[in-house]
Amino acid sequence: MQNVVILGAGEKGLAILEILHKEKDFNIVAIIDQDKSAPGLLAAEKLGVPTAMNFSNNMEKDIHVVFNTTENKDIPNPKIKSKMIICEPILSLILKQKEAIRQLTKKTDDLNEMRTMLEAIIHSSDDAISVVDEKGIGILINPAYTRLTGLTENEIIGKPATTDIYRGESMHLQVLKTRKPVRGAKMLVGPHKKEVVVNVAPIITNGKLKGSVAVIHDMSEIRELTTELEKAKERIRTLEAKYTFEDIVGTTDEIVIAIEQARKAAKTPATVLLRGESGTGKELFAHAIHNESDRKYNNFIRVNCAAIPESLLESELFGYEEGAFSGAKRGGKKGLFEEANNGSIFLDEIGELSSQMQVKLLRVLQEKEIIRVGGTKPIPVDVRIIAATNKHLEKEIENGNFREDLYYRLNRIPIHIPPLRERLEDVPKLCHRLIQKINHDYGRNVEVIEKDAITILQQYHWPGNVRELENILGRAIIFMNYNEAVIKKEHLPPLAKSSQPVYKQTAVLEKTETLQKMLADYEMKIIKEVLQKHRGNKTNAAKELGISIRSLYYKLEKMQNFA
């Protein structure tokens, strides 16, 4: 074993100390330096190596080698000088290597720290994440992935990317093959056959493919969120009025009178009864009346009395108390009248109410209060009622289908909305407004409708009114090419022209009937005659009538129901 002394306890001496202390063939007799705070001396004390400020006589006898790490090369003691090794060149190399190792260690530590941080981020994500290497072998998944698929790390790490797929193609392998991301891929994964949507992207570093990462979304959660969003949207739509009088298009006397009456009605709290055929725009008027009134900042509730089953209508309108019936919510539920308190409620198809519901509605109008289903305590409400019907309520009263006292309560301010056939001069303006709406709904860019097409539209009798006009224009725009900006007559579906004899016939009728009924009778008569002429051949009959076979079937079904 060689006895050694290290001369100098600076950085270089410290480096020699660290090297020799690990070697079994060397015995460090002492490390010498006059600076008591030198790093080599401090390290030696921790390692249990003797330290000194100068050479002693005892050292001279037993020393085999002296490592000189100082700049002083002139040593007066000849015995020591003969044993001295100048370490400068070696130490410079050692220190450079040591610094390089230190830098490399720091980078490794930084990378490990970054990897740990990234893994922590991935593991904390609520989105299911899986990562594979360039060969498609699983290298990382997070807890959300296990919760979604039911597969653990032992079942995925080190296994092929197809391991988790129950049905479908591996998007990891596709991305590794194409180097292009994939989004919105649907598949079934895991033992529970979970339906998911997958987004996968390649991991590319310095131009080299290193693997791919996938984010997996549960389709059931997406559907649930979508349903909740639609419910929220529907709720918002139900509670607000969207239209104003500026949205009502028309300059003919009939529609202008209706708008003026509605504006006056909006300034009062009185009940309004909107009357008119289906598709004339009664709901549009109801929105406008609410928005013109002093209740416009409160709720506007819309109720289609014909769309809600009779068994549910009472609880929907008036609410219910807890335990009122099986399935009732804990704590009960507010009805639509309570929701509309201090606002307006629009009761569409009011003529469809049953006798029992008419009595309850009459109580609300008279007493300004409601009683929940299963309850006994009256709840006061301040609600402006706007009702609408396409029925002849006077005839319904004669037939015993509608209460006379309720009729007089509702008919405080009656407003008649004219059918489209009575204001054909408004067709061009209506077309312009409806084209804007359809463009917005369908993502189209149609600009105008030509005059010949307008003429055809003005010759039609419009049993479906403005709603039918919107349907016709929507159908024309759908079948137009995307680069077409003008609706031409060839874009319109076949429309039966109004027949002048209908009006002549009405002049000599002994029994007074509505125009719609007379038009329907005349249309039925023509169709029957043409069918008899062609011995029941519907295809030939449709050709002669200038309508599609589908339209003919629709009209025949309508006739059958009417009969």
TrEMBL record:
Domain of life: Bacteria
Keyword Protein biosynthesis: no
SMART domains the UniProt entry points to: AAA (SM00382), PAS (SM00091)
The UniProt record lists the keyword Transmembrane: no
Domain named Sigma-54 factor interaction: residues: 248-478
InterPro entries: AAA+_ATPase (IPR003593), AAA_lid_NorR (IPR058031), Homeodomain-like_sf (IPR009057), HTH_Fis (IPR002197), NAD(P)-bd_dom_sf (IPR036291), P-loop_NTPase (IPR027417), PAS (IPR000014), PAS-like_dom_sf (IPR035965)
PROSITE patterns: PAS, SIGMA54_INTERACT_1, SIGMA54_INTERACT_2, SIGMA54_INTERACT_3, SIGMA54_INTERACT_4
Keyword list, A-Z: ATP-binding, Coiled coil, DNA-binding, Nucleotide-binding, Transcription, Transcription regulation
Protein name: Sigma-54-dependent transcriptional regulator
Source organism per UniProt: Pallidibacillus pasinlerensis
Lineage of source species: Bacteria, Bacillati, Bacillota, Bacilli, Bacillales
